[in-house]
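thought: fold this chain, then report.
action: predict
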Amino acid sequence: MTNLTTLDELKQHITLLASVEESDAPFISCYLNLADGPASWRETLNGRARILRRLLKGDDLADLEEALGKIEAWLTTDLLPDAKGAAIFVRGIFGGAFMLPMQFAVPLPNWIAIYPTPNIYHLVELKDNYHRYVVLLAMPERASILEVNLGATTTRAWINQPELRMRVGSEWARTHYQVHQAHRGDRFVREKIAVLEQLMRADGHTHLVLAGDPDTIRHVRHALPEDLADKLVNMIPADEHDQPDDVVMATLSSFIEHEEQESRSVAERLIEGLRGQNLAVAGSADTLNALLWGEVDTLVMAGGYQPDPGWSCTDCRAIGAEPPETSLCPRCGKPSVRPMDIREALLRLAGQLERPVEVVEQADALMSLGGVGCLLRCRPDQQTSAKQVMLP
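observation:
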């Protein structure tokens, strides 16, 4: 059964795509924005296909036609009606047949690339922006706990307030009734929090949004234990007449802003690491070297990072960040150097190491340092010493 791709699946897919072996056969990375209807993405797909058919010949053209046929078949038979974005990665039989489709509840850009390896930037950006979180949607008489996973919403629990069976009568003073109502409300809040805490702990959630009746969510906020309060991202007011999908969209916008703030905080940590602790590097070349060392903690990339091509050797597999000057490999000396997409190379290395990636949209300081960098697990001199010790 075809389902929307979850965060855990996306993480696994990024690692898999980052590890795909390079070949001479064309590898198609196809991203489609389904939110605006078929006309928009269809124009992009058909237009790009026409250009690629003119550029490729022989086996490469046959591979392209096979890959495009697989994309068309999948779009016809497996696309879900509530999908807003799709990513399809395909290679034909000449390079080793490969196909991995994904679909999401949030849009992706219309973007199609042909390259020796999969292009994963938009997947990494999607994972960083949307991630997953829990929403407690609370009204005075009912509450629901929702999981928002890459923009898709799943109801995890309903909590309903039992009806008050005692009426206000001669035997009950109104103040007695009000006190009873207050105690009943406290119990209801405790029940909400108990279920919430259990679900978040079981699933490993690290972000929480409260939404709903303003008085109710304020009451919940004051009653949250410290561990849940530390995970609270925002509080979104809503009333009984608001549609759940609209409330979730409001929480989604708030969560994306929170994620951007977290990404900027990581970028600030990188700048501090460069200034004094020597636990960070910046710039394409130093970041590439750090990833090749394998002692990277987090890759930090500005959204506007668009580096010049680097180089890779198809014979000895050496790579470099500077633009290639000749076809001769600096390491093995063979005429087997070709241009390499540095941004994708950094993302592939981070994916192979299963290191987190932070994409920062507002990153002027990082852009002034080359647009990319990474936090390190240990200082470069310690890494070098460790490598030398390990040599036979």
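thought: worth noting. Confidence is low (pLDDT under 50) at residues 163-183, 383-392.
final: tokens above.
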